[in-house]
Write a structure and sequence with these properties.
This protein is mainly alpha-helical. 58% of the residues lie in helices and 3% in strands. The chain is built from 21 helices and 5 strands. Helix 3 packs parallel to helix 5 and helix 3 runs antiparallel to helix 10. The longest helix has 49 residues.
Length: 665
């Protein structure tokens, strides 16, 4: 018989036999040295990668070294997982456990011993994280191999998962503000993961007949897709787009678990995050502070306040103002005040000195509450000004250095963080309808108006009566109706628009009481031009406000990999929004230059609704309890759809895997 007459299955068997002959079984005496050798290469490649990140700006070199590190990690994991099929199971288990313990120990050493982002600290952190993931993945692979035919274990895990699910369902109904139900749901999720991890192989190995063919695949698809359609019209009505995203995410997760690719996926995600986080960003500009001693003909505008005047929301920032742990003021040249430098709004165009700092509250501008300072590393390299100095003292230094005569205006925009911007954002993005509890923060607006008045009066005292002091409000960046692509319901949209209006009224009140100007065009600037740039007024991706925007802080590798440092740009105007504010404010600045403006008076007093809580601690407890109730209720709502979509996806994917293996056999 010639080769052409040999059946395809027999030819595949011959090829596999030849491969096994060329690749002799691994012995225990060779396993340990090879594992240590690959551990060494992992540490070496991680060290080279960190060196490149810390000491070079070459994007290509960083990407190459990240790829090399990922390859060495993959080889280590492959070696461990391949060894699980050999006879020396105990040795492999011990090695996997030892690598995991080593990884955890390195992470502990990093936490305890390293305070500064040194090279050794970065290598220790990355090595610990890598060894922990690789060791856990190897141990999981070994357990999969040992329990390949252990159906009772899988059944026990399923029953445990169901038990946790029932407990969570009951506890979230009986004690809606208790964490017991939340932890029970977490236990159910872990049980479901382990059930699929150890139950897939027994199912594929023992089930026979047509049930595991196309009927099983069709049943799974029908259950998953049918549940998705039902959820869009039933328990998850109003979030139709997100239901499809949830179903797709669950299907991918089930595929990863069933095909034993979760360890590879985790490493791939970390590698992708690292690649994205370390790509060098072009610097917006050098700090302008050292240029203020220019020629006497240069006019100067100074901007004080929070992130809406520092330029948060841009893609690039001044050197040294986006560094975790020392200076996160995140200043850029895109703000509506900074744009005075590049337009003909004022003639001649002034030099804008921005000392506003992201995250600032009123106490960072004026010392109304001693002991609270601004970013520890700001200002940068100012003579005779210590880092951490309040912004009003920085303004005083500018006045002393250049003289009052060169000042065209002082713009102050602060109070949003005092009013609770960040807390409101978290509450509204999370589960539940935050419009129910906005009164918790609304009662602070009268205090914001009073303290902002002190800031404005102090600015007048520093620069004198001849320099205009301008209070800058916040843009109304959302429509009141809402739309499909935001995180907020229609009720939340309406409540947030009203809250911004009331905050701006507080700013206007403070300006009138202090006798300073109010930058009136800013609140309506997003809808003042030809295009409505408000969220839901513009198309998806075209609004002047970032919803969720990823832009990491600079610093050590740990800082770069920490997702908490990625979201700073979220819920801030982007360059399009800042430009819209500049265009809307241009006529106002023209009137100011012509001497046609006087301080406006507010139309009404700042509203003071009854607070649902008393002290600050009571309000925090109230909000925490509300958030937990909403979380538990949302999880209860999601339980049935998630369960059915997961089961349907598992049936379909297991059927596909079994059919693929049958065709390859």
């Amino acid at each position: 018989m010639i080769d052409g007459d040999v059946p395809a299955s027999e030819r595949r068997d011959r090829v596999r036999a030849a491969v096994r002959v060329q690749d002799p079984p691994l012995s225990g005496s060779r396993f340990i040295p090879r594992t240590l050798h690959r551990l060494f290469w992992v540490v070496l490649s991680l060290s080279a990668m960190v060196l490149a990140i810390e000491w070079t700006s070459s994007r290509i070199l960083v990407m190459v070294l990240v790829a090399v590190a990922a390859f060495t990690i993959w080889m280590l994991g492959r070696s461990l997982r391949a060894a699980t099929a050999e006879a020396f199971t105990g040795l492999v288990i011990g090695t996997a456990v030892a690598i995991t313990v080593l990884g955890v120990a390195l992470l502990a050493v990093y936490v305890v011993m390293f305070d500064d982002p040194t090279l050794l600290a970065s290598v220790t952190f990355l090595s610990g994280l890598t060894f922990t993931l690789v060791g856990v993945a190897a141990a999981e692979g070994l357990l999969r191999h040992l329990n390949r035919n252990n159906g009772p274990l899988a059944i026990g895990l399923v029953l445990a998962s169901v038990g946790f699910l029932v407990l969570g369902w009951v506890m979230t109904a009986v004690e809606p503000e208790s964490l017991v139900g939340t932890y029970a749901y977490l236990g159910a999720a872990i049980g479901a993961y382990l059930s699929m991890t150890f139950g897939t192989e027994p199912w594929i190995g023992r089930c026979r007949g047509r049930l595991t063919g196309w009927p099983m695949i069709g049943l799974g698809i029908a259950v998953a897709v049918g549940t998705t359609f039902w959820a869009r019209r039933g328990p998850l009505a109003g979030a139709e787009t997100w239901v499809w995203a949830l179903a797709a995410a669950l299907a991918v997760l089930v595929w990863v678990i069933v095909t034993d690719a979760d360890g590879v996926l985790a490493l791939a995600l970390i590698g992708a995050a690292l690649l994205w986080a370390v790509v060098p960003r072009t610097v917006d500009r050098e700090p302008i502070s050292l240029e203020i001693a220019g020629g006497p003909q240069d006019r100067i505008v100074v901007a004080l306040g929070d992130s809406f005047l520092s330029g948060e929301g841009a893609d690039r920032y001044e050197v040294g103002t986006n560094v975790a742990g020392s200076n996160t003021c995140r200043r850029s040249s895109v703000t509506h005040v900074d744009l005075l430098q590049t337009t003909d709004t004022l003639t001649p165009a002034p030099t804008v000195i921005t000392i506003a700092c992201s995250g600032s509250v009123i106490d960072d501008v004026i010392d109304t509450n001693p002991g609270r300072a601004s970013s520890s590393g700001d200002p940068i390299d100012w003579p005779d000004v210590a880092p951490g100095t309040e912004q009003m003292d920085q303004l005083q230094w500018i006045v002393d250095t250049v003289g009052v005569a060169r000042l065209d205006a002082v713009v102050i925009g602060v109070g949003g963080n005092d009013a609770g911007f960040s807390d409101i954002g978290r509450a509204c993005v999370g589960a539940g309808d935050c419009s129910e509890i906005l009164d918790v923060w609304r009662v602070n607006l009268a205090t914001v108006a009073f303290e902002l008045q002190l800031v404005l009066q102090e600015a007048v005292a520093v620069v004198g009566p001849d320099v205009p002091v301008v209070a800058s409000p916040y843009p109304s960046a959302l429509t009141a109706e809402g739309c499909w692509w935001t995180f907020f319901s229609a009720a939340e949209h309406a409540a947030l628009v009203q809250f911004i209006d009331e905050l701006n009224l507080a700013v206007e009140t403070a300006a009138a009481e202090a006798g300073v100007l109010y930058l009136e065009p800013i609140p309506g600037s997003f809808s003042a031009g030809e295009n409505d740039l408000r969220v839901c007024g513009a198309g998806f991706g075209e609004a002047g406000l970032n919803l969720v925007e990823l832009n990491p802080q600079e610093g050590s590798v740990r800082v770069l990999l920490d997702p908490r440092n990625w979201l700073n740009n979220s819920f801030h105007p982007n360059p399009i929004g800042h430009e819209a504010m500049a265009e809307a404010a241009a006529p106002w600045w023209g009137q100011l230059a012509a001497g046609e403006l006087a301080s406006p008076a507010p139309n009404t007093a700042v509203p003071e609704p009854d607070a649902p809580c008393g002290s600050s601690a009571e309000c925090d407890e109230f909000v925490a309890g509300w958030a937990l109730r909403q979380l538990n209720q949302s999880v209860r709502t999601l339980t049935v759809p998630v369960l059915l979509i997961t089961v349907g996806s598992w049936l379909a994917i297991v059927g596909l895997v079994r059919r693929w293996r049958w065709r390859m056999a």
